[in-house]
Specification:
Keywords: Collagen
Strand content: 25-35%
Distance between the termini: 83 Å
Largest sheet: 6 strands, mixed
Biased composition (Polar residues): 258-268
Organism: Streptomyces finlayi
Protein name: Collagen-like protein
Shape: flat
Strand order of the largest sheet: 19-20-21-22-23-24
Region (Disordered): 258-292
Length: 684
Amino acid sequence: MAIPNEIPTVRVTGTYLGWDGRALKGTVTFTGPGLVTFPESDLFIAGPVVATLDELGRIVDSNGNVGIRLPATDSPDMNPSAWTYTVKENLTGVTGARTYSMVLPKDTTNNVVDLADIAPADPSTPSYVAVPGPSAYEVAVAQGYAGTEAEWVASLEGPQGVQGIQGVRGSQVFTGSAAPTSALGADGDVYTQYTATTFLGVTSTTVAMWARSGGTWARVGGDVRGAAWYVNTTTTSSTDTKPGDMLLRTDTGDVWQRSTSGWGSTVGNLKGPKGDKGDAGPTGPAGADGTGAGTVTAVNGVNPDANGLVTLAPGDVGALPASGYVSGGNLILNSPTGGYRGFSFRTADANRWVFQVDNVTEAGADLGSNFELANWGDDGTWKSAALYGERATGNLGIGTKGLVPGAKLSVQGGTALKDVGAPPATPTGAVIAYSEAGALKVVTPSARFTVVEPVPLATKGAVNGVASLGADGKVPAAQLPAAGSSTPKNMWTPQALGFEAWSCDPYTVANPAAKYLTPGRLYFVGLNITESTAVNRVVLYARGYGGVSTNRYRAGIYRENGTKVVETGGIALTMAGQEAGSMPAMKTNHIGAVPVTITQTTLTPGRYWVAFSLVTGGTADFAFFHVQNESPIATANFWMPGTPFARAWFTEGQTNAALPTTVSQTAAGARADHDIPIVALANV
């Protein structure tokens, strides 16, 4: 882009030759102020101008034209004004580069000036010094003035002139390290933002230019900042760097160049291949003779033999013999800190077994420096801790360093006991486990018994034999005890009708009149679980329920000790009797099972209560099948003294909030003068 025509320029020329007439090479640099503003041209001009010398030693511009055009130093409407160029000559092979000042008036003859006409001849005076000429008074005298100098000066002051018109405010240049605020300056002003950052010892300054127009500051162009080189020996963050910056890893020689997204991949490597081995240096001069007689008198108390030789045994220097044994003594492996100490058994310089103390830090409380006997593989890598001892507790591990807290011995993997030749004697204050004829036995101070009595799998389904499980996780009927035992046969069970358990068989119940759930009453119905049973539904038996959408119900399961197993939130229930296969009267009268979904739960054998309540609803919303009761205590509450368990009871006052955490049939508010609801559990 050329300098606009409205900005006056002057062409600067110059030719540089050596003493022998050859053309010199090099550059001539012209530097103005840091930033010059030309408001009328909407232009900033900054930076040095570097002109090169051609093959004839002449200054040429970037297009090869002789001379270089520069803006005049007295251009109109320029901010700042009244400045000079700094000229620096960098000539190849010429020492003592000159630097001097230069002005370029716009009225320069033919708009051309040659440096030979204006450069100072004396390098020691790089800036122009004006030569005193005749004073204005002397000029006046020469023109015929006859008064004194003081009179002449007084005659120069004329009468007060008329007040001039207020001039137009000129543009101003502001600087700072932060972005300009809206309150700063006026339209036409410019702002230079300098932002300095230091990273890895390198300080970089970023320059951003702002211009104010329409009452708003806006950036002019992008940030100005030269690329920086950083040197490091580890992973380097790109947060405080700029695109174009370079990074050298001195430990690897790798070079990166920062992109807009970060360092990315290496762009090169400065490390060359390893050089050839150098030639051996010459033999150094012989050393001076020592001051002694050249004979050995003794070493560690061992005298030389007749030939002057001293033969030392391992014990003479505190060493162990290469073979044989040492009687008595104590081998000490000392370390100022808790590092590894031990010795190794090797084959072909590769570890096979290592007997050592580990490097766990001794942090007090007898921690650290634990014992380890480790085995190593053929590839020279550690395999396991065959034996491990914890110093703080004295606890041992076999095959593991992960000791079980509180156990004196922890074993990783199976442990075998070989048959004893004779059973051990009865111990005192101890228990002995041993193997006899392939059976695991234990002898205590008061008894001797077999822990596990093996049963051959071939005795499947036989007396004292074993039984296998079917695909459903249950014992097949063919492997169950024969008919005639205590197991019921050919009877209706909960499982026969899709349930896992129920409070009673409704088949035997008569309901002459409808009974409804009482709002706020929390019913408890007992169930006996004889085997582990997975359930996810509590099932109510409705004599009439049309599914009132605003009703809310809560249900749960409690253990015999009163602790809660599972519960639901406040939920709505669908109308009864509408599923496929229901009889017509069941559909029209809304009679049937009403499931309440609960979290999947496995109940272990024991006695449980199913609890449920209508927490939001009316007194005639949910009719239920029941066992009729006319007594202060329902007939379900019948047990042998010593085994109390109420199978039917209730409490009042349950709201649409969480069910009680614990319950008790002996609590003051517990009652049983009601008709007993029929419930079941299912797993869908």
